[in-house]
């Protein structure tokens, strides 16, 4: 089955995403998180543990990181244009992430988002869920940590 390649990023281009999905975008129902932070952004996330995700920070000074709730995961947003791009969780040098479906270029054809409430999960359950449904082995370039990939 051919992979479906998607690109996207923040509005000004400082943070870009490139991803490959094993299924067509119509097969992914974005998840609109009902926490107070995601609601303010209108964010709705999608991911696939069988897919691939690469995050590229083209302007390191524009990379904003925000932790809220129980602070386990990190929201990546652009300090220049204000767009919330992805949520990332790192454990044992492996990165997991989910992408805000609103940042994908063009109209990939995602179904309408469904509301989810991960804030009701206990921290351990939350992490287990991220590992099960988010992109795994996420690569990140240009964030200034010295780890190119
Ligand atoms: Zn931007």
TrEMBL record:
<dbReference type="InterPro" id="IPR011057">
    <property type="entry name" value="Mss4-like_sf"/>
</dbReference>
<dbReference type="Pfam" id="PF04828">
    <property type="entry name" value="GFA"/>
</dbReference>
<feature type="domain" description="CENP-V/GFA">
    <location>
        <begin position="6"/>
        <end position="125"/>
    </location>
</feature>
<keyword id="KW-0479">Metal-binding</keyword>
<dbReference type="InterPro" id="IPR052355">
    <property type="entry name" value="CENP-V-like"/>
</dbReference>
<dbReference type="InterPro" id="IPR006913">
    <property type="entry name" value="CENP-V/GFA"/>
</dbReference>
<protein>
    <submittedName>
        <fullName>Aldehyde-activating protein</fullName>
    </submittedName>
</protein>
<keyword id="KW-0862">Zinc</keyword>
<comment type="similarity">
    <text>Belongs to the Gfa family.</text>
</comment>
């Amino acid at each position: 089955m051919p992979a479906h390649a998607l690109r996207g990023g923040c509005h000004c281009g400082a943070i870009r995403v490139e991803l490959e999905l094993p299924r067509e975008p119509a097969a992914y129902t974005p998840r609109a998180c009902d926490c107070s932070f995601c609601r303010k952004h209108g964010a709705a996330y999608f991911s696939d543990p069988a897919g691939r995700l690469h995050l590229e920070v083209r302007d390191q000074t524009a990379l904003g990181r925000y932790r809220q709730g129980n602070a386990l995961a990190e929201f990546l947003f652009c300090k220049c244009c204000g767009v919330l791009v992805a949520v990332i969780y790192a454990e044992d040098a492996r990165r997991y992430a989910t992408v805000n479906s609103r940042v994908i270029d063009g109209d990939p054809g995602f179904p309408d988002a469904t509301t989810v409430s991960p804030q009701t999960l206990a921290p351990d359950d939350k992490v287990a869920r991220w590992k099960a449904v988010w992109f795994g082995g996420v690569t990140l370039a240009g964030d200034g940590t010295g780890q190119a990939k």
